[in-house]
Structure formats: structure tokens, C-alpha cells
Known about the structure:
The protein has one domain (3-50). It has no helices and four strands. The protein has strands spanning 3-4, 16-20, 23-33, 40-50.
Amino acid sequence: MGVININKSIAPDKDEFRLSNNVILYKHENENYDNDNQTVTKRDTTEIIPIE
């Protein structure tokens, strides 16, 4: 399943946001290192997690 970016205003204070009864958005912070392994780019990423 892919990862999507989502506007922080949807769930600004929560790590999890229930989209429906069987889907949760899970927000976490990604750290991406550039080729020199020194520069770090942080961005919030939200995953859609289906609940079985």
C-alpha cells in the first residue's frame, strides 16, 4: 500500500485519525538523508491503514 501526504489540519494533534470504521490514518515523521548522509529532511507522512 502506498503512502500519501496529507494536510496537517485534518489531524493536527493526533498520531492516529479514524477515517471510517475500518480505516485509520497514521501520521509519522520521516527523515530523509541526502547523498552526503549529513543533510536531513524531515516531513510528516500519513499512512492509510485498513483494519481487518
